[in-house]
Amino acid sequence: MQKKNNIITVQNIPITVTTDDANDYICITDIANAKNSNSRAADVVRNWLRNRATLEFLATWEEIYNPDFKVFESEHFKKQAGLLTFTPSVSEWIDQTNAIGLYVKKGRYGGTFAHKDIAFEFASAISPVFKLYLIKEFQRLKEQENDFQKIEWNAKRFLSKNNYLIQTDAVKNYLIPKQNYSENLEWLAYAKEADVLNVALFGFTAKAWREINPELAGNSNVRDYATINELTVLSNLETHNAQMIREGRDKKERFLILKEIADYQLKILNEAQSINNQIEEKQ
């Protein structure tokens, strides 16, 4: 899908945000302009990438979200961190490790773009105060987009005349695997982080879903059929999981905590939505 660009202004500095259906990437070259120095923005980014703490963060993020990340190659970067001769570029990091958290865009409106998680980390290195304002403006942008989506959704809802069909639990257009992954935890030993989240939220792995839904698995996955509430909880689970990985918690402990969080948050969101639906039906 074609990416959509937005501009947010943070302390009088324009920052480009590129958005598609799944992810938000923020131009850290623009963020680098907030640093009060004589260095070029590109040099600020390069110096940030030289830091071992930066490389540890980037590698951890990739291991969580990128199954094709080359961990061994990333260790080569870490070993050179701090050396005067070590001046890596973002393109080198991407090419050698197959990273997806950063990408470089050429041209007049180009620069280095980072997934929002990474962009916020970069902003911390520039200025903790600037990071706070960046998060605030980014959240404002997301709220505006959500407001527009609500308007669009309400219009479609009215035209379809299907108000009475909207319930808390969306109709599932797929078959649900019957294995109880929450009780039998043997799968955890070999599970990728994405499946730890899948089982915590949906109750089954991506592979199990594909096997029982082969017609749908060709061009989609279970997350494509998730409700808004489920996607909201999934986003929160990703944040919690990343933090627990940093804390060094093992996979079983993280799964049990994530499962508890998912059950609780989804229950709260569904109950709130059910109440809103009942109010709307009475109006």
From TrEMBL:
<feature type="domain" description="KilA-N">
    <location>
        <begin position="4"/>
        <end position="141"/>
    </location>
</feature>
<dbReference type="InterPro" id="IPR017880">
    <property type="entry name" value="KilA_N"/>
</dbReference>
<protein>
    <submittedName>
        <fullName>KilA-N domain-containing protein</fullName>
    </submittedName>
</protein>
<dbReference type="InterPro" id="IPR018004">
    <property type="entry name" value="KilA/APSES_HTH"/>
</dbReference>
<dbReference type="Pfam" id="PF04383">
    <property type="entry name" value="KilA-N"/>
</dbReference>
